[in-house]
Amino acid sequence: MFGIGGFELFLILLFGFLVFGPDKLPEIAKTAGRAIAKFRTAQDEMKSTLNAQSFMDKDAEDPFKNPLEVIERAAGDAQAKTAKAQAEVSAATDKAAEKISEKSASFAERKAAYDKARAERKAAEAAAAHEQAAQAAAAKDNPKTEVPAKAAACATDDAEAGDA
Question: Are 55 and 65 within 8 A, CB to CB?
Fold first, then answer.
């Protein structure tokens, strides 16, 4: 590895231990290992990309590729990916539009139900007010009915007071 022998590696680790201490050395080694792994994966990815788009094909009868064909193939791939992405975006937009229309329809339905309930409540209040007005008018016309109602209320109050 880089032309370093076992003894030189031991000395490097010893100086690292002395400089960074026993607490930091494992963390530094872990970070260095991750960095090397990322570098290797990037290197492999770069090799595969260069091999896929190189102008030279070692296995073919004609080893040299036409650079225009490589560029056209890359452009075609990019256009296909763009068309696919546009289709996904339009599908997502259509779904969002459907959800918005469902919400607006349900809002309209909720508003209609609220308006209907409000109209029924107002009609019931008006009917109750009209009934109270009719009772008040009837009581005014017939004073005898008012006195027995007051007497019954007083009798009920007296009975409750006697129970307590």
Answer: yes
pTM of the model: 0.29
Quick check: helix, strand or coil at residue 83?
A: helix
Residues 53, 74: contact at Cβ < 8 Å? Answer: yes
In 3D space, the residue among 70, 46, 44 whose CA is nearest the CA of residue 57 turns out to be 70
Contacts 24+ apart (CB under 8 A), 89-96: none
Token digits of residue 29: 């080694």
Q: Which residues contact 139 (CB under 8 A, 6 or more apart)?
A: 145, 146
Q: Residue 65: is it exposed, middle or buried by C-beta count within 10 angstroms (0-12/13-18/19+)?
A: middle
Amino acid at 156: T
Neighbours of 159 (CB within 10 A): 9
- Whole-angstrom Cα distance, residue 1 to residue 59? 33
Instruction: Tell me what pLDDT residue 164 has.
Output: 45
* 135-163 tens-digit pLDDT: 888 777 765 554 455 554 554 555 455 54
